[in-house]
Amino acid sequence: MIREKLAIDGGKPVRTEPLPLEFPGIHQMDEEESAAVLGVLKHRSLYRYYGIELQHEVEKFEAEFAQFLGVQHAVAVGSGTSALNVALTALRVGPGQEVVIPAYLWVSVAAAVVNQGAIPVIADIDESFCIDPADLEKRITPKTTGVIVVHMSGAPAANVLELLKVARAHELFVVEDCAQCAGGSVDGRKVGSFGDMGTFSFQMNKNLTSGEGGCVVANDLRLYRRAVAIQDVGFGRDEAGRMSFSDPELCLWGKGCRLDELRASILRVQLRKLPRTIGNMNRSKYRIRRALEKYPEVQLRKIADPTGDTGCFLISTYPAPDVAERVNAALRAEGIVTSPQGLSNIVMTRWGAHLYYNIVSLVDHTSVDGHGFPWNLAENAGLARDYHRGVCPVADSLFERSILIAIPSCLTEKDEDDIIHAFDKVLSTVLPMRSLIAVS
Ligand SMILES: Cc1ncc(COP(=O)(O)O)c(C=O)c1O
User: Is 302 a catalytic residue?
Assistant: First the structure.
């Protein structure tokens, strides 16, 4: 192979046009979403429970989403964060409990546990970038009540069945946070259908989006009915959509995070397009992944079932942090970047509140009420609560040796060619140089 001079060393970059922004669902949006919203506006019925000419968009979305996932019940909510809050409340999480969460996550997962008055315990990840079942087992104490499995960066937790096995053996609840992996599956079974409850986000970066939005899913009717009351005002509803106090089991406290009809109408269209959205990303990602397989020094994320990977991110891992930094800087110089407001290509240590030790409020035990809640509650005395870098050595090492590249759902063949070309150019220069330095 003729080695080309790298752009970072003064050579010609592979491309100068920024790559498309991420935002999987947005790229598939067209007149269909506009027509759906206008339909709701035309009927002046924006609220899910009653209206002038109620179109039942939220209810229809919930039924369609549940069917798509293969679960019994779904209740749509205002965000992925509220979905987590609703699920943990439905599961009765509270003070004196430990809930295991992964080292690679989003801040909302930790926040949901802390806001309930419980204590999050961080478990390490493995090469799948999701919880390592062996480490989960180690973090369980008599105070542990559940685990939140987070399907990160578009791909389902490769070990989801093993994680379930560990959780079941210890009688823990399992919440699957599917915010970053809607439509993902393992051997044909969709994420969100494995655990006791599944949560989703439909914020703008997600596989299907209405700008903001979320959903809680469950197979258990009792849990679902609790979630329905909690996302609302805390009570059931009668046939006319009015508050009902007739069921004593559903006289709870509400979180007021209902989804509205406008956003549900968009989500119904986005759901129909989801197979295309994730099909595009999966195709692009695996074309690039296959091109990287010829480099033995490059470790690719462990994926249980490539056909069930939604494909929105590609993660590649290098033998040492300096190699990852050099590869990343060189790829960026080759034009493997997007517009400044987006994210396309970073070393994972720069991935903000996705890494446990970057969540300042967690590391510093910031209290919810300014008086130490939940950290200083008597019920939480003696529970583990260290969140500094070093608590999860495998994650710490993976983060500093890995590069995350967003795979938009509208990449052209030319975009993919450029990414592959840039990788070839960079890796064929950086990797041999490294082995030369190592033997010299
Ligand atoms: C894994 C994960 N969980 C929860 C959320 C929260 O979703 P939202 O932004 O809709 O509140 C996100 C959002 O990025 C996420 O990535």
Answer: no
